[in-house]
Structure formats: structure tokens, C-alpha cells
Amino acid sequence: MALSVSVLLALVMLCSSPACSRDCALHPSHGNPETFMLLSQMEKISILSCLKDRTDFSFPQMLVDGNKFEKTEATLVMHEMLQQIFNLFSKSDSLVAWDETLLDKFLAGLHQQVDDLETCLEEEKNVELLSENSRLAVKRYFHGISLYLEKKVYSHCAWEVVRVEIRRCLFFINELTAKLRK
Known about the structure:
By secondary structure, the chain is mostly helical. The protein contains eight helices and no strands.
């Protein structure tokens, strides 16, 4: 029941949000510090107590140097990452790990960012062809995170390790947004 409330809240926020401008300038919501702060506040246990559960999720090397991205490809990569983060935290297994109010706000913020980027991507005709390798790299990366959670039976420590890794992703999106705004 609680999952459906979280997802419904995010969908209501998505459907009621105003569309971003058609010029699609990258604005601060694409590297939203509030989303980063909410994720930080979601910490329930210290990562220090979960050191035995740490793993290398192998952040895609091709994404590390955001200077190589054209604006359209960067927008698609950010969209895919935010969508994957939303999917990950929307799983029913995530409810036991997080404060529901913080999770709802976090999901709503992610959904708003995804919606804004979708509006930007609608303007591009051949966006699918431009970035398939980057998109697949992001999907593989998040699939590895999902498999890790499954293997660790969605334990609190596993979720904490993932939360820290997702902070890294949000930091990457923030940095990429800042580079593209220049």
C-alpha cells in the first residue's frame, strides 16, 4: 500500500508540473541540490557499520569525462540516470529501508527532473541514435546495483551502500549540468 502511495504521489507531481520552457536551457533542477540533500537525510545507519558490504559498482568510465558529451547526449544520460534512480527507489523493497516522508519527497523531486528532461528531449529528433552506447552503459550500471541489492537481500547495509553510490551519481549529474551551462 505504501509503495503505491509513493508512486502515485510522484505521478501526481509529474502530471501537475508545468512544462519547462521550449528553449530547454539546462537549469538548476537538472542538478537539483535539494534531491542530493534529501538523499543525504535518508541515511539511517552509518556507512562505517556497513564497510563489509561495500562493493565497486563500476561507474561507467565512458561517462566520467562529461566534456565529451554534446548537450543532447548529456541530457539523455542525465535523464536515463535519474529514471534508473527513480526506478530503484520505487521498488517495494526500498520502503523498509527509508523514512517514507523523505522517500516520497525524494521520488517527487526525481520525477520532476525526469519530466523536465523529457520535455527537453522531445525537441530532439534523433536522440535515440546519438546515445545508445551511453544509455546502455547506464542501464548496465544500474542493473549491477539491482543485482547487488538482490544478492544482499535488500538489507539495511546494502541500501546504505547503494544510497552512497547514488549520491555519487547525483554529484555526477550536478557536475555535468554545471559544465554544460558554461
